[in-house]
């Protein structure tokens, strides 16, 4: 289902470009486009294929089939994508990533919220974690640029949000009917709801259609109304950038002194290895693959990994544990599920005391379980998502059919919360030397555990959810497990930003402390993770990094 199935594509290096960008997700695509538009010669190296946009309808049809796994939709898995997980909570890495032109933005939900001012000042405000070396005001103009580039639909109706400088590019999506049910309950409880900014077209924008409501936003938007980074990869190519797909970088090679990177060594499907030289290198392949690449690039000068004299490469990995609740009402919600959320509240985001931490609470437009899936589960409503689903249903035949009919129309409601997770040094991406990928390299080992701050915040979020469900009159049918929460796919940390070279990997300019021509544009540079979606902040930092690279050339 990809254009890159042919082995004949030219994957030879570009002779001495200005910039080599490793990775083509949101960060890599925006950095490459910004630098190409600025007149620089840019090459992008991407580990995965260039997916044919025409295949998205086919991928959507595959995604709704119960026998197709989540990872299969974007061809994730196999020797290329082996990994390990050694933390207290098993981290299903392959469920949260895509390798290919566009990266993980090909299957993200599309929420595009800004961090709050407090997220940059956790130590000075609460004595927790560390402050960022930059503040909200430093990123404010880049947030505005990122909203224009991605195309964000929103409204200035969040009384708890950070200050803004201009309107959103598009109007917000209207609240769903189930949002109105929640709104009545929240009003009784003194909770204020507001719309969600999202990189999804509420009207035609940037030569892309408005949202057509396929409701399969995760894992694929077949219409292209939801932003994905392949858009800016194509824009970068239009400005002269060269893209080399299926070219996983194996290591970075530096000069004799270790002062600058000379080349990125990458593999190709024909078994060849190539050296891509450049004046500047930008790592934009995410908070797992960036530290892995730096660790794989260890040398006599950098025995613990390239740019790792601080020992911080791979450390302080973060992702939000999802706190979810579902229930049923005595009345129908009368909604046509659209696959994404339209309302949330940040009322519990900013706080005076250190704990509990920030919470972002979203109100779900619950998709009813499909008839096919219900039939395979023997009429069972519960979504266990395991291999035994077809075997353990409660009812079969006419009995199952009658229950399925009785469950129409949809009466389900739900909420999802992102609790604040503080960086912990032991949460890390390291190399598992006992396992190798298809190229013979040690695989990444993701260690993810929850501390007391996260657990206290999760418990607080659950109390709020239960209060709302009780006021709504809903019978709770499911609550997520605190001991084994699902990560939100918000990978952050591992090459943190700072002014002290002994404790951080990159400077406020996103250039590494140790290597003068190596920059990092990724969620990996986050110092703390807040409680909201990181993508818009990643985009803003990528634009900032591109400006600093441009200034250095």
Automatic annotation (TrEMBL):
Chain ranges of the 4Fe-4S ferredoxin-type domain: 202-231
A family per Pfam: DAO
Domain of life: Archaea
Keywords: FAD, Flavoprotein, Oxidoreductase
InterPro entries: 4Fe4S_Fe-S-bd (IPR017896), FAD-dep_OxRdtase (IPR006076), FAD/NAD-bd_sf (IPR036188), GMC_OxRdtase_N (IPR000172), GMC_OxRtase_C (IPR007867), P2Ox-like (IPR051473)
GO MF annotation terms: oxidoreductase activity
TM segment ranges: none
Cofactor(s) recorded in Swiss-Prot or TrEMBL: FAD
Region (Disordered): 480-501
Family listed: Belongs to the GMC oxidoreductase family.
Entries under PANTHER family matching the protein: PYRANOSE 2-OXIDASE (PTHR42784)
Protein name per UniProt: GMC family oxidoreductase
Species of origin: Halobellus rarus
């Amino acid at each position: 289902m990809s254009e890159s199935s042919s082995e004949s594509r030219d994957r030879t290096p570009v002779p001495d470009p200005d910039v080599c960008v490793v990775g083509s997700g949101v960060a890599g695509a925006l950095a490459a486009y910004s630098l190409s538009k600025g007149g620089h010669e840019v090459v992008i190296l991407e580990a995965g294929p260039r997916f044919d946009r025409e295949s998205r309808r086919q991928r959507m049809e595959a995604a709704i089939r119960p026998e197709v796994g989540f990872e299969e939709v974007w061809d994730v898995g196999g020797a290329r994508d082996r990994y390990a997980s050694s933390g207290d909570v098993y981290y299903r890495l392959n469920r949260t990533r895509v390798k290919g032109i566009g990266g993980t933005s090909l299957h993200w939900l599309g929420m595009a919220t800004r961090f709050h001012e407090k997220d940059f000042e956790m130590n000075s405000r609460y004595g927790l974690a560390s402050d960022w070396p930059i503040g909200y005001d430093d990123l404010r103009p880049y947030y505005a640029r990122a909203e224009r580039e991605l195309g964000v639909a929103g409204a200035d109706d969040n009384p708890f949000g950070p200050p803004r400088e201009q309107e959103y590019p598009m109007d917000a999506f209207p609240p769903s009917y189930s949002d109105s049910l929640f709104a009545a309950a929240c009003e009784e409880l003194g909770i204020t709801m507001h719309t969600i900014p999202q990189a999804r077209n509420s009207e035609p924008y940037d030569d892309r259609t408005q949202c057509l409501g396929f409701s399969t936003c995760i894992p694929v938007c077949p219409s292209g109304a939801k932003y994905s980074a392949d858009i800016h990869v194509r824009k970068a190519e239009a400005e002269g950038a060269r893209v080399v797909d299926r070219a996983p970088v194996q290591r970075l090679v530096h000069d004799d002194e270790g002062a600058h990177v000379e080349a990125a060594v990458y593999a190709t499907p024909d078994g060849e290895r190539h050296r891509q030289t450049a004046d500047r290198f930008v790592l934009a392949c995410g908070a797992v693959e960036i530290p892995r690449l730096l660790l794989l690039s260890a040398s006599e000068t950098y025995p613990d990994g390239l740019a790792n004299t601080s020992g911080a490469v791979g450390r302080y990995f973060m992702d939000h544990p999802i706190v979810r609740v579902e229930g049923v009402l005595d009345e129908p919600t009368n909604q046509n599920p659209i696959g994404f959320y339209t309302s949330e509240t940040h009322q519990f985001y900013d706080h005076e005391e250190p704990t509990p931490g920030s919470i972002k609470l979203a109100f779900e437009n619950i998709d009813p379980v499909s008839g096919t899936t219900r039939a395979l589960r023997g009429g069972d409503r519960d979504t266990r998502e395991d291999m035994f689903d077809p075997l353990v249903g409660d009812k079969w035949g006419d009995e199952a059919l009658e229950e399925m009919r009785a469950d129409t129309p949809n009466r389900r409601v739900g909420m999802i919360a992102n609790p604040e997770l503080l960086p912990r040094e032991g949460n890390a991406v390291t190399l598992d030397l006992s396992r190798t990928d298809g190229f013979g390299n040690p695989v990444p080992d993701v260690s993810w555990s929850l501390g007391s701050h996260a657990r206290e915040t999760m418990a607080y979020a659950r109390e709020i959810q239960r209060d709302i469900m009780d006021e709504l009159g809903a019978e709770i049918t499911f609550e997520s497990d605190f001991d084994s929460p699902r990560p939100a796919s918000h990978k952050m940390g591992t090459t943190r930003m700072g002014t002290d070279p002994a404790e951080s990997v990159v400077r406020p300019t996103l250039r590494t402390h140790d290597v003068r021509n190596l920059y990092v544009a990724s969620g990996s540079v986050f110092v703390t993770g807040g409680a909201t979606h990181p993508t818009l902040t990643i985009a803003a930092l990528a634009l900032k990094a591109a400006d600093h690279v441009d200034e250095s050339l």
